[in-house]
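User: Can you recover a sequence for this backbone? Please restate the input before giving your answer.

Assistant: Of course. Working from this structure:
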């Protein structure tokens, strides 16, 4: 059974930093595309950053490019999202995603709130 457990959310002032983590069990994180999504109140869930260990690639939404970094600690089967220079518009619930066997697996989400 695949389980994704996020941690690291919280309240931070604009310009601050947070690091989110996503611990994966039931699958090897390095074998599948993984991503961070976020969903703000009243908005659709959107992709923030993706990582593919096998292809050695990462990608970012334009809104977070050069501020956020996605990376993995593959022996720990964990991925991270380092978020710098946070803005109030980054406020959302952040979700970890793993896509495997034609299905999407999600964590429970972690709240990130950025005050102005």
């Amino acid at each position: 059974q695949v389980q994704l457990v996020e941690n690291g959310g919280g309240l931070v002032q604009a310009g601050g930093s947070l690091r989110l983590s996503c611990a994966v069990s039931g699958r090897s994180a390095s074998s599948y595309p993984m991503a961070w999504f976020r969903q703000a109140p009243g908005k659709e869930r959107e992709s923030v950053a993706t990582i593919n260990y096998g292809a050695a690639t990462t990608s970012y939404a334009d809104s977070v490019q050069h501020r956020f970094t996605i990376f993995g600690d593959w022996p720990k089967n964990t991925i991270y999202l380092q978020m710098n220079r946070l803005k109030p518009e980054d406020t959302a619930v952040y979700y970890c995603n793993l896509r495997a066997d034609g299905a999407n697996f999600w964590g429970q989400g972690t709240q990130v709130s950025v005050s102005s």
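That completes the design. The chain has no helices and eleven strands.
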